[in-house]
Structures are given as structure tokens and as C-alpha cells.
């Protein structure tokens, strides 16, 4: 699913790559490919894949900060932030922090596992 990013905040975690810190296995002092930071974003859906059931083009959503595996129990409960894949080191953690997992400081952003990785707020329209 692709969203047009409306807003993406700057978190203290975004500064680790900037300062060349080390977080877990990610050592930002080492040479790495350029990537986009940002893991706290809202936006409007501009495209959905065939497998996406909970969202449609035009919906305004907030995006989970991390990419869950989409299959473990926490992920299936909509809690990708505590995905079991994180503790096993199988998958990347947060968008824009894990190398090669681009973040939302961009005009457009791809949300993985979109049905659980993005949420609509039924009481509020994000702007
Ligand atoms: Zn953060
Ligand atoms: Zn998971």
C-alpha cells in the first residue's frame, strides 16, 4: 500500500543514524547505503495492493512505526510493535532506522503488511 505522507515527525531515534551511533546490530558509524529516516507518520492512501482488505484509496491513516512479520500472534492482533520476529532478529525493526527499510520523511511511503501496519481513526480525520 502506498500513502502520500501528510506529516512525519522527527523522533530522537532518527538522530542515531545522523550521529553514527550503534543500535543493536545496526552500526551507523559504518558505511551504509543512503536511506530515508522517519517512523512516525500519517498520510492518505493513494494505492492499495490486491491483498489489502482493510483500506482503500483515499483513506487517511496513521502508520505503525515498524514492519512486523504479519504472521505471528502479536502481528495478527494488530500489535506489530511487539512482533516476535524482532526478538529473533529475523526482520527489521523500525521504518527509517533499520538499514534498507526506508522511512516516511518522504513524499510517498510504502506500508508493508498494510492491513495491520496502518490504522484508521474512526473519530478523527488526519490532516
Ligand atoms: Zn520514535
Ligand atoms: Zn510478527
Structure description:
This protein has 127 residues and is α+β, with helices and mostly antiparallel strands. It has one domain (2-66, 95-119): Alpha-Beta Complex (Quinone Oxidoreductase, Chain A, domain 1). It has helices spanning 15-19, 73-76, 84-88, 114-117; strands spanning 2-8, 22-23, 26-27, 41-47, 60-63, 108-110, 118-119. It has a 5-stranded antiparallel β-sheet with strand order 6-1-4-5-7. It has a two-stranded antiparallel sheet with strand order 2-3. Strand 2 (22-23) and strand 3 form a beta hairpin. The mean pLDDT is 86. The protein binds zinc ion (2 copies). One zinc ion is lined by residues 68-69, 71-72, 74-75, 83-85.
CATH A-level architecture: Alpha-Beta Complex
* Tally of contiguous helical segments: 4
What Rg is obtained from the alpha carbons, in whole angstroms? 14 Å
Strand content: 15-25%
Structural class: alpha+beta
Strand order, main sheet: write it out. 6-1-4-5-7
Give the overall shape, derived from the CA principal axes: globular
The biggest beta sheet, please? Answer: 5 strands, antiparallel
The total count of strands amounts to 7
Query: Order of SSEs, N→C?
Result: EHEEEEHHEHE
CATH class: Alpha Beta
Distance between the termini: 19 Å
Helix content: 10-25%
CATH superfamily: Medium-chain alcohol dehydrogenases, catalytic domain
**How many discrete structural domains?**
1
Q: Return the average pLDDT rounded to an integer.
A: 86
Amino acid at each position: 500500500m502506498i500513502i502520500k505522507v501528510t506529516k512525519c515527525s522527527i523522533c530522537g531515534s532518527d538522530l542515531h543514524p545522523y550521529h553514527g551511533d550503534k543500535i543493536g546490530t545496526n552500526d551507523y558509524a559504518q558505511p551504509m547505503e543512503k536511506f530515508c529516516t522517519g517512523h512516525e507518520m500519517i498520510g492518505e492512501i493513494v494505492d492499495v495492493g490486491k491483498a489489502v482488505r482493510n483500506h482503500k484509496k483515499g483513506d487517511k491513516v496513521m502508520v505503525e512505526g515498524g514492519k512486523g512479520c504479519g504472521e505471528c500472534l502479536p502481528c495478527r492482533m494488530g500489535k506489530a510493535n511487539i512482533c516476535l520476529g524482532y526478538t529473533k532478529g529475523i526482520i527489521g525493526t523500525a521504518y527509517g532506522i533499520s538499514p534498507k527499510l526506508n522511512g516516511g520523511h518522504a513524499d510517498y511511503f510504502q506500508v508493508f503488511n498494510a492491513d495491520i501496519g496502518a490504522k484508521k481513526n474512526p473519530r478523527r480525520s488526519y490532516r
